[in-house]
Amino acid sequence: MLQLPLNILLNDSATFDNFVIGDNLQLVKRLTDLNSSTTDFIYVWGTCDSGKTHLAQAICQSFTQQELVAAYLPLDNNELSPDIFQGMSFLDLVCLDNIESVIGQKLWEVAIFNLYNELKADNKQLLIFAQEPPIGLTIKLADLQSRLTAMEVYKLEALDEQHKIELFESRAANRGMQISPDVIQFILTRYSRSVSDLVAILDKLDQSSIILQRKITIPLVKQIFDKT
């Protein structure tokens, strides 16, 4: 991955292998097939809890493993400015996350428009991840609106309850944690079901079980979370 002069690092655990596909088989297959032999401009949208950032980082790590050069840019990072795109057309892939964070700002819209054109001219690839489809963004620059709507657009479907259970189980297994189905069901029934919250719960359980030297049980879950 291109090393930028910013505190932007990929999460090593964000890979295709541990992404729970759910109802997104076509999209994940499309992304895993990407390589440097084609020019792909793909726009992926979904709720903030649909796993967009995981996929965005997974494709960048996949390119790095193929010895290709990719840049992951979360546009909700306040350290970024529109001139970050200058000279990026040499990259094999540019991945923009949370594009809605800068839409409506003239300098950003012009910079994204120029980046699009430069990558297209050099036969490189652009992936954009957002919470809204292109037609749902309040874009002021008409030319940028037309470019984004011309991209290959996919909706990333959020996980249903069964897929959230699979996510919880797979993340726990990756950490070497033993959590029974009853405990997982208790967590899903009693606490937040958002994916980000479930991952945070898993983090807290992992830390607490190590500190307290206790197995992860329903009483332990209650002890940790019912007092907060």
Explain what this protein looks like in three dimensions:
The protein has 2 domains: 25-155, 3-Layer(aba) Sandwich (Rossmann fold), CATH 3.40.50.300; 161-225, Helicase, Ruva Protein, domain 3 (Orthogonal Bundle), CATH 1.10.8. Helices cover 42% and strands 11% of the residues. It is built from 8 helices and 5 strands, in the order αβαββαβαβαααα. A 5-stranded parallel beta sheet has the order 2-3-4-1-5, with helices on both faces. The longest helix is centred in the last third of the chain and has 18 residues, at 195-212.
The termini sit apart by 39 Å
How many alpha or pi helices? 8
What is the spatial order of strands in the main beta sheet? 2-3-4-1-5
The string of secondary-structure elements, in order, is HEHEEHEHEHHHH
What is shown here, in short?
This protein has helices at 25-32, 52-65, 106-121, 142-149, 161-174, 181-190, 195-212, 218-225; strands at residues 41-45, 70-74, 93-97, 125-130, 152-155. The protein is α/β, with parallel strands linked by helices.
Spell out the blueprint of helices and strands:
Layout: H1 25-32, E1 41-45, H2 52-65, E2 70-74, E3 93-97, H3 106-121, E4 125-130, H4 142-149, E5 152-155, H5 161-174, H6 181-190, H7 195-212, H8 218-225
Parallel strand pairs: 1-4, 1-5, 2-3, 3-4
Helix pairs in contact: 5-7
